[in-house]
User: Which sequence fits this backbone?
């Protein structure tokens, strides 16, 4: 019996797969409309944006040194309103506006990375400050002088802009097949098959040993924060296209969910351990949980509480597994 329990808990992928199946069965039997094909495909659409932010969070946490990015949601808000304003108010073509949006996300990520890797400021403080700064910038940019001093959403996009977030191929959302899956495969390759991936795990596992091995720790951490900004920008593009609106608060609350997914997926909060495969399963679980609670009419307050409990449970499970390996 002990061996069976060790197999279930000790193998993260097996544990997450089992949790996914149990949750799917429970929601299918208890929540009306959950198994509806339209609901399931919509659920995958939401999972793309959340998954991109979770992957960004996973990279930062993997780098160790207390790495965490509390600003991913605010960076998403900033990029969304940058894209929206450039298209809807300035009149730029969607492709050019998207390029500016990606650059804005990259700049925000680099700013975080420079403060952490060069300035040696704690990631928690840097990204908490970034969360406030990027959210404020989004609100400032969203102000339309024609309608007074209040921030205004932008929604007058050309139809071509909606393609990435609303088009489907064989019933499967376009962004799942051509955004999330490619990003997932690229990151899996980078982490498992390249020298950069080995350096990232080395830095996260033991920074001192990495330094003595000749690894440029500052460069590695700067890179992951830049990637976090790019992934947040990509999520902003997808969600703005999907909901046909750019709002300065579009990313509010995504930070908790992204961190929860990364930790539940096996990314050690201490750094240096975890895979994108675990994050993928975790994205599916949290997306399904959110969807099921919404369909069941559970108030949003309780939904956030459930995510908090999942986060605590994930950290406790990680600590338990670390202690088991040391025995």
Assistant:
């Amino acid at each position: 019996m002990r061996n069976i329990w060790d197999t279930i808990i000790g193998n993260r992928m097996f544990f997450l797969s089992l949790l996914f199946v149990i949750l799917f069965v429970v929601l299918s039997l208890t929540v009306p409309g959950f198994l509806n094909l339209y609901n399931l495909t919509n659920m995958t659409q939401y999972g793309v944006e959340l998954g991109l932010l979770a992957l960004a969070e996973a990279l930062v946490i993997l780098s160790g040194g207390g790495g965490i990015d509390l600003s991913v949601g605010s960076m998403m808000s900033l990029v969304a309103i940058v894209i929206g304003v450039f298209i809807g108010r300035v009149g730029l073509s969607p492709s050019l506006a998207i390029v500016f949006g990606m650059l804005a996300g990259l700049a925000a990520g680099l700013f975080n990375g420079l403060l952490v890797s060069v300035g040696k400021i704690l990631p928690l403080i840097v990204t908490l400050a970034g969360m406030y700064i990027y959210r404020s910038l989004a609100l400032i940019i969203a102000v339309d002088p024609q309608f007074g001093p209040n921030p205004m959403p932008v929604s007058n996009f050309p139809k071509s802009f909606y393609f990435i977030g609303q088009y489907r191929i064989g019933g499967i959302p376009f962004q799942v097949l051509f955004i999330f899956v490619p990003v997932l495969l690229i990151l899996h390759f980078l982490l498992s098959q390249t020298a950069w991936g080995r350096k990232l795990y080395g830095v996260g596992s033991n920074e001192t040993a990495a330094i003595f091995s000749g690894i440029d720790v500052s460069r590695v951490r700067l890179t992951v924060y830049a990637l976090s900004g790019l992934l947040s920008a990509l999520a902003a593009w997808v969600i703005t296209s999907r909901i046909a609106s750019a709002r300065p608060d579009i990313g509010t609350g995504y930070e908790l969910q992204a961190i929860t997914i990364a930790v539940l997926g096996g990314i050690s909060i201490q750094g240096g351990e975890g895979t994108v495969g675990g994050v993928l399963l975790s994205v599916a679980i949290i997306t399904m949980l959110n969807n099921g609670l919404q369909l069941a009419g559970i108030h949003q307050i309780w939904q956030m509480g459930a995510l908090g409990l999942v986060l605590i449970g994930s950290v406790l499970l990680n600590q338990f597994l670390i202690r088991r390996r040391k025995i």
Observations:
- Residues 41-252 form one domain.
- Residues 184 and 251 are 21 Å apart (CA to CA).
